[in-house]
Amino acid sequence: MMFNIEITTKKGHNVSNKEVVKVAIDKGARLLLNTNTHIPECFLTRELIIKTLLNVGLLIGLL
To answer: Residue 36 falls within a domain, yes or no?
Structure first.
């Protein structure tokens, strides 16, 4: 069975993203990026996506 595990860009909720990524990789789960937001100022932008993925170590060597 394949699982999806979410990492988030929402402030305060994103503090555990690194640990979530470690567990997902260890368990072979797919990762999903989400905002958990309802205001336009927090919608995903290219810059926010890159920053978030860099912060959890998923873009190392790809940029």
So the answer is: yes
Q: 7: Cβ–Cβ under 8 A, 6 or more apart, which residues?
A: 14, 17, 20, 21, 31, 32, 33, 34, 52, 56
Residues in Cβ contact with 21 at an 8 Å cutoff, skipping those fewer than 6 apart: 7, 31, 56, 57, 58
Please count the structural domains in the chain.
1
Buried b (16+ CB within 10 A) or exposed e, 19-37: ebbeebeeeebebebebee
Position 61 in a domain: no
pLDDT mean by block of 10 residues, the chain; 63 residues: 90 94 94 90 90 90 60
Range of the domain at 11: 4-55
Compute CA 47 distance to the chain's CA centroid, rounded to the nearest angstrom.
13
